[in-house]
């Protein structure tokens, strides 16, 4: 089965191609159109998912109606694993960003996969620790850094997860609106628009067909360190 390239936080790290096919066949593969909702916050978590191609946006709706973008889930990454194993509700909603393909596993199937393929358990732990570290860093950024610095760090984080290099520039390889970036960084659309416009004039970032290009990654890194 054809899958996209996976990264260091993959559920399938250290799994052979033969084992990968065996695992995927135990789940249910689904294809989602852009904007389709895979699961809703608060619903019973009946299946966990691994992204095969495309990307999921995980969002939490605050009781006051404010949407918060928790993170973006790319190829090889997990969604709702803990909620399913613990018999909880989905803690967030998952929406497809572009055409996306996932494979879903019920709790019983996932436990069998873990028993049959020990590396999967290690990958789950690694994935959970990476998520925890990222959330801790984002929490500290919100309370300790200026908003422009948070936006720069967020772009660099997303770039690392979903960046494709073209010469000296790096394209964030999925569409992300300025409102979504605002929801991700905990600020306003006005602030994100003002900041990105200023950085475009400096040649740090570009926009093309709804996607963000990091034209000068080094400048953003220096900005986060010397703000």
Name the CATH homologous superfamily of the largest domain. Jelly Rolls
> Biggest β-sheet, characterized?
4 strands, antiparallel
Order of helices and strands: HEEEEEEHEEHHHEEHHEEH
Mean pLDDT: 89
CA-based gyration radius? 18 Å
How would you sum up the global shape? globular
User: Quick one: CATH class of the largest domain?
Assistant: Mainly Beta
CATH-defined topology of the largest domain: Jelly Rolls
Distance between the termini: 46 Å
Any low-confidence stretches, pLDDT <50, length ≥5? Answer: 1-9
- The percent range for helix content is 40-55%
In quaternary terms, these chains amount to single chain
Total domain units? 2
Measured by DSSP, the beta-strand proportion falls in: 25-35%
Structural class: alpha+beta
Annotation, overall tally of beta strands: 12
Spatial arrangement of strands, main beta sheet: 1-8-3-6
CATH architecture of the largest domain: Sandwich
Question: What's the total helix number?
Answer: 8
Q: Could you walk me through the main structural features you see in this protein, from its secondary elements to its overall organization?
A:
- The protein is an alpha+beta fold.
- It has helices spanning 17-25, 81-85, 107-116, 118-144, 147-162, 178-185, 189-202, 217-226, and strands at 28-32, 37-39, 47-53, 56-61, 67-73, 78-79, 93-96, 100-106, 163-166, 169-172, 205-208, 211-214.
- It has 2 domains: 17-137, Sandwich (Jelly Rolls); 145-226, Winged helix-like DNA-binding domain superfamily/Winged helix DNA-binding domain (Arc Repressor Mutant, subunit A), CATH 1.10.10.10.
- The protein has a 4-stranded antiparallel sheet. It has a 4-stranded antiparallel sheet with strand order 2-7-4-5. Strands 9-10-12-11 form a 4-stranded antiparallel sheet.
- The longest helix has 27 residues, at 118-144.
- The protein is globular.
- The N and C termini lie far apart (46 Å).
